[in-house]
Amino acid sequence: MNEGIMHDDTPSTSGAPQAPVRTGGTIRLTMAQALVRYLAAQRVASEDGTSVEPLFGGVFAIFGHGNVAGIGEALYQHRDALPTFRAHNEQAMAHSAIAYAKAHFRRRMMAVTTSIGPGATNLLTAAALAHVNRLPVLLLPGDIFVSRAPDPVLQQLEDFNDGGVSANDAFKPLSRYFDRIVQPAQLLSALPRAIRVLTDAASCGPVTLALPQDVQAQAWDFPEDFFTPRVVRIHAPAPRSDDLDAACARLRHAKRPLIVAGGGVLYSRAADALHRFASAHGVPVAETQAGKSSLAWNDPLNAGALGVTGSPAANALAHDADCVLALGTRLQDFTTGSNTLFTQAEVIAINANGFDALKHRGFVVEADVRLALDALAGPLQGWHAERAWTARAHKLAASWRDTVQTLTHAPQRDAVLPYEGDVIGAVQRSSARSPADDIVVCAAGTLPAELHKLWRAGRPGAYHVEYGYSCMGYEIAGGLGVKLARPEREVIVILGDGSYLMMNSEIASSVMLGAKLIVVVLDNRGFGCINRLQQACGGAPFNNLLDDCAHGPEGVPRIDFAAHARALGAQAEHARNLAELEVALQRARAAKGTYVISIDTDPARTTEDGGWWWEVAVPEVSTRTEVRDARAKYDAQLAARAAPSAPPSPPQGADQD
């Protein structure tokens, strides 16, 4: 235990800040000092369970007039017990904090603090991302004066109908718990509630504590034992016996079961339990974006990615399954093919969050995935899927692994630009050790589809793709958070030029913190993914690729991503082809600091194998023949979905978002 959190390191001398005054069983602190001291005192069991470590890995902070004098001073006092990291963009630093928690499978986390105005509202996108992905992050935006004496202060948003509203009220629908601390004593209830939400498998998500700047500076006599270091338990619900009995009865009737592994498998540390269950009962496994890496890529029963970005093996099995065991997944539209992929199957949903489990009219087991799988082992002893079904799953999975090998090792012609699959293959071949030692980070565009199909994840957490919110700009910031969580691993961020241009500032942060990233930028000259989707819906190429955008007399820019990255302090180079990329990757792996490599890629090519229908509404009326034709296809898919006895067949070669 770090007992330093119980004492100030600032001596009481003339002109210096005064140390807290202790009176009996209380300690006089400002609200901000008490908040920081409490966060620093929280502990959690280490991953192996043999020791304890801080629950909070640190605080990302960009200071402004709403937090520099209050929480900024408190963070300085406790900088040894609770490190503070400076970032360059508020949204980005929150992404880093969220990625840190995801890389720790939600057992450790970070806090984020900003000023009261644009700094606070810059966090809103990240708050929504954390909410959608069920990931813990503590947001501490500064707020306006409770006293209202100097109103309106700089950056204050005034509501014409409600004097108590500030810009921070926008966090309410984006937070799993929201509180505004208007008196220091409120921390006694607000902080334990915040920690409970952040460490509860069912309610996990972003917590926002709005901190008015005058209240941050107010002092109060806090009970001294409030700051005693405590080991926090991660709360996870155990399954009810009647739910288990009902689930077992349904599974015993299943002949062709399929497991859908979602992020809850990783967060509950159920990878080993999943492997044991699938192997014992001969059940194939398909992985969602959040759940990929739950099972090793070369496990005989791993059929690969599921859904719109899925493999042909997983989607064929989902199409024919009579029972789907959905583990820790929200069953969103990319997983279910907009609710067309396994309409014929009975769904059993095991999820710590009942809201997330209540999808597809399935049977709900509200429980932690690992606890539920362990509890099912005894009652299901002797049950096995049809042998022919298991054999088919083995054959399809093996065939898909062979296809992945072919797709990622295709010979290249000098005159042909590479596409995402080629780059993915080059990255994985570049590993001097096993590719399982790498962690790939991505978020939006074409790359999540290609990575979902083609990345070979050898251990839990080797695949870190944010696709619940599909947030462009998460990639580099997220990579920084992953590296802070897993400094011993090679963290490889792969992203498109569009995402790079949206948010790249944390390259400078990674250099400053000595948190090495390898960043591979695929430059297809625009938003290639949405350009393809636009045309698939009958639209003309418009406002996506740079050449199709409005531009001035000088034309569209030629962007030198390597030069830009060097300006931010990274080492960088441009690879003219795949051969140069492979050599550059070796230099990047040998480098001590962040290394950025750019390469030109084809905006039109994608992996044609696999995929499934995804519902994107097409206009009913248009002057374009292409749009009317696309609408006719859309209407046919809608009709097929309305007839559950005949679910749609997978479209071959369809473009994916």
From TrEMBL:
The EC number(s) this enzyme carries: 3.7.1.22
Q: Which residues form the Thiamine pyrophosphate enzyme N-terminal TPP-binding domain?
A: 68-156
UniProt key word Hydrolase: yes
Question: Residue ranges of the Thiamine pyrophosphate enzyme TPP-binding domain?
Answer: 444-598
The record's keywords, sorted A to Z, are: Hydrolase, Thiamine pyrophosphate
The reply on keyword Hydrolase is yes
Entries under InterPro entries matching the protein: DHS-like_NAD/FAD-binding_dom (IPR029035), Myo_inos_IolD (IPR030817), THDP-binding (IPR029061), Thiamin_PyroP_enz_cen_dom (IPR012000), Thiamin_PyroP_enz_TPP-bd_dom (IPR012001), TPP-bd_CS (IPR000399), TPP_enz (IPR045229), TPP_enzyme_TPP-bd (IPR011766)
Q: Name one GO molecular function term.
A: 3D-(3,5/4)-trihydroxycyclohexane-1,2-dione hydrolase activity
Give the top-rank taxon of the lineage listed in the UniProt record for this protein. Answer: Bacteria
Q: Which Gene3D superfamilies match?
A: 3.40.50.970, TPP-binding domain
- The UniProt record lists the Thiamine pyrophosphate enzyme central domain at 244-376
Residues annotated as region Disordered?
A: 1-22, 635-657
Which class of enzymes does this protein belong to? hydrolase
What residue spans carry the Basic and acidic residues bias annotation?
A: 1-10
Protein family per UniProt: Belongs to the TPP enzyme family.
- NCBIfam families listed in its UniProt record: myo_inos_iolD (TIGR04377)
For this protein, the record's PANTHER family field holds: 3D-(3,5_4)-TRIHYDROXYCYCLOHEXANE-1,2-DIONE HYDROLASE, THIAMINE PYROPHOSPHATE ENZYMES
Question: What name does UniProt use for this protein?
Answer: 3D-(3,5/4)-trihydroxycyclohexane-1,2-dione acylhydrolase (Decyclizing)
Organism lineage string: Bacteria, Pseudomonadati, Pseudomonadota, Betaproteobacteria, Burkholderiales
